[in-house]
Amino acid sequence: MSSIPVAPQINTDPPQPTRNYLNTEHTIKSWLLTGDHKRIAVLYLISISIFFFLGSLAAGFIRLELTSPRGVLLESETYNKMFSAHGIIMIFFFLIPAIPAVLGNFLIPIMIGARDLAFPRLNLLSWYLYLIGGVLFLIALMMGGVDAGWTFYTPLSSIYSTGQITIALVGLFITGFSSIATGINFIATIHKMRAPGMTWDRLPLFVWAHYATSIVIILGTPVVAITLLLVVFERVFKIGVFSPELGGDPVLFQHMFWFYSHPAVYIMILPGMGVISELFAAFSQKRVFGYHFVAFSSLAIAALGFIVWGHHMFVSSQSMYQGIVFSFLSFLVAIPSAVKVFNWAATLYKGHIKLKAPMFFALSFIGLFLIGGLTGLYFAAVATDVHLTGTYFVVAHFHYVMVGGAITAFLGGIHYWWPKMFGKMYPESWAKLSALLVFVGFNVTFLPQFVLGFLGMPRRYHYYYFQGGDMQFYNILSTAGSTVLAIGFLLPAFYLTWSLKYGKDAGPNPWGAVGLEWQKVGSPPTTYNFEEMPVVTWEAYDYQAVREGTLELNSTAHHHESYIGQPEKEEKV
Amino acid sequence: MWNFPVAPPKASTYAAPHDYLFYAITALTVFFTVVVFAVVIFFAIKYREGSKASREGASDENLRVEIMWSVPPLFLAFLIFAWSTKLYVDWRKPPDNAMEVFVIGKQWMWHVQHANGVRENNELHLPAGVPIRVTMISQDVIHAFYIPAFRSQYHVVPGRYTVQYFTPTTPGRYPLYCTMHCGTQHSEMGGYVTVLSKDEFAKWLERGGEEQAPVTKTMAQRGAELFKDKNCGSCHGPADTVQGPSLNGIYGTARKMTDGSAPIADQEYLREAIIDPYRRLNQGYRDTMPGDYRQVFTEEELLDVIEYTKSPGATKTPEVQVATNSGASSR
Q1: Can you tell me whether residue A115 is helix, strand or coil?
Q2: Which of A290, A342, A390 sits opposite B61 (nearest CB)?
């Protein structure tokens, strides 16, 4: 990863700082035993990228199979293993760690003015736990795979399935502790390690979002961990918990599973919302509208998230009255989410908007998340849920939230903080192209799936010949879109890697943004981030003060000048 | 592949009301997505860096505005909630005079029994205009019984009966799916529902469904046979005995259990009492029921026996009619 010392010739920019977190040490050992939150973030970035690639590969096979009502290449059993692997990898090994473990790890200490997270070794441990869990899951895949879907409904998973469920579940159990470690670390850090003047009121919304997420993680993850372990006990030792043949209750599993897995949706989307708040402020050069409402809506979403799990179970044999209560509570979640979107929109009003690549991702997030969030109404309303749940409608809905929301936000965040993380600029026009391809490809992939779901195509179906040829058109359209989407996802892998060696030096504050990570540390930062303890005297996103000249945007003491007024011309590639 | 319908056929009384709500939510979704996204794009262009638009009076916090855009969505949400809940309660409400159909899900097929003894696999024939009560149970993993044309699905769970209700309206042939992932051939666990006019359905039932030979035994009659074969009557005769309560007229009665519970003897209760009798005992009885009836009866047979206990004079019938083993019990 060490891209320093920098290639030389035509570089007319000021020289890089001689020392940063990337080039202090070069040995592999210095990476694998590091306690530096930034290096751990980089380790996470590499790991989740590999898992994202694997999960996408599985998605590619799924889309290929569905171009024909009777499949193309795979046996049904293999197909089932494909969608299971896709779901498990994308959720547990990509989406849940993606933003917190990469961007959160890298940025939270810097944003609050700390040298590191509260527990650097616990942070490193969390990466190893993640890796052990991930490798166990890959071993399960190589030994034959898992065919029970990412939801592991009992008694299919505990008694009937012949896949490598036990190893996979042990892997997920261990990975769960990696999230818990990260969550504890964030909470302790945010409470105890804020720099002087960094009051709760001045925390960047990214930090607020991660604070809410961490609470969800440490309250929810233990429940799913023990649930998965109970499935293992039933499977291996025949202890009856969920299987009626052994005296258990199969629906109990769903309650315990969704008690975590619904909040897990917020574990995936809340950090993304945090990213979007940062992007809107930075690229509108304006304080996020309704700062307190956006911050507290994160907490409201986290709290409500724990009392709506029953909306996954309206047709699972829960009582009618339970259904009504869960439906009502689920409708309430719509409000804090709507508040966020409206506040972001209002942030743009009378701003000074720079339409840079990260902002492209942020704008695309708004469009996709609107659809993702609003289509949640169909599943909060029991009357439509009874037709649409279990169909492609729900598949489309959660992909709009998870991919259109969380992954778009992740990409926006990576593009925004890439110069900070690695000190290099990527080619702007390629990044904009990627944002555009993702937006278009995504919509072409998943809009048709809403129609498929309304027509009644069940999810997780390998064959769909019962309805004649009615569904093939939409499936082919969806597959076509997914190839565009794949290109959109692949591009950044190339140009971002390219930029490490050939990109222009970014300078400490290429976007002219307010925030400790831009104002007070270099790009890339040094190992302990700050030369001296920063003292915060300004409000979050105080662009007004910058315009009035009362807040200096860049006061990194030790190196070159600010890079504000970055050349408007885009680099040639 | 060039036919692309945008909506499934409507074939139950629930389909039309469902679709009104569906389209209402769709309208909301489209409206908010388009309006908010358009506003965002409009602002992004109008207030792009360097544009001449006025930035006078820009603000960044305003309680009144926050309330203004939180409250109307909240009311809309309550409205949709109320509308949906009304439909949902109607959907779950047991209809009067419903015709009973029994469904057993197993990896990977649907087995259907009609009360008069007709059986079908992966097919379901129903009369139009008659409310249907479907009692469902799974023999292995969780399945879900889903008929898109009826806009109705419900899980089919092992170890307990679940029910769903619908009233078919339009004669025709509609796909039937399993929507809960149930293993290797999940996507092949489907078939068709055929809705017939009342007359045609009566004829269909009369001639024993798709079978060539007539059906000779109803479910209750098959249950009576099982009752005799398995010697249930030696303890559960016409009157209570020391060993066990009589099953005569037991259906629908309130039981008094030693654990203090007082269940009504419905399908769920009777199934539990047969295969798991010691879970809770009727007051005055001990754990003397022999054998493991979980191993003795299949789910189909349990339904037969329960149907038998519903019929008047059960256990008294002196001689179970011994039927010729024609092809009646089919496939």
Answers
A1: coil
A2: A290
